[in-house]
Amino acid sequence: MKAALKRRSIALVLALVVPAFASTVQAWGDIGHRIVAELAWRQLDPAAKAEVTRLLRVDGSDSLPDIASWPDHLRDMPEKAALGKATGPLHYVNFRDDRCRYVPPRDCADGRCVIGGLEKYVAVLRDRHASDADRADALKFVVHFVGDVHQPLHAGNRDDKGGNEYQVQFDGKGTNLHRVWDSQMLYTRDLKWQAYADRLAAEGKVKLPRPIAPLDNPYAQWAEESCKIVAGRGFYPDGHRIDDAYVAKNLPVAETRLREAGKRLADLLNKTLD
Ligand SMILES: [Zn+2]
To answer: Known catalytic residues?
Structure first.
């Protein structure tokens, strides 16, 4: 009796843990998304803050960081699994080569990429005739996708599922390059997300890259920046090994992307919710 119960509880734990684990390979880990949301929250103007707070309450939440990873967990919620499947391709965009030039019909057919996802959900968030429930969902997607598009491997140019299929050795263990960039490099600071956000905020205002003329789509620019980082020399580590030198060089890059994402998300929400 006892053994059977134990077996059942192990099965239950596995059922809970395995999908959560599977979903962590889709995005900045939870820590990265929380940091982006927290940095944005601190830079919202009072009107945007009030509207974000109101929409979060519709959703039974009171914290922007708490909802930032929601789109990664939809597939684990039976009633949201279809939405999770439909929005799966909206977490990333694939570029074709090192030039990282975004060509919408080719790279984002039917709006099914992170750039299309941002266009779609920013429009819903802006629409005061849309229901509060739809706008609350749109807010959660926008917060999440601004984070994703700044994770370099969500807009890479290789045929390896954003580095998920590129195995590396890190700290004596096997992993893949996507997970290293999602969270494992960030963990080397040994900070909880609040303290990490404090640390990044203490660096002061982030200097955003200039808008590229004539590109009038900011989301495409953010994706192209990510692609350029992936296409840079040494991004794919020699010998599939992440050593201290790799972290020393690339962790600041990841942190700059988090700061840029936070600032841009704040600017976007300030503009959209005015
Ligand atoms: Zn994602």
So the answer is: 28, 33, 72, 75, 91, 144, 148, 154, 178, 182
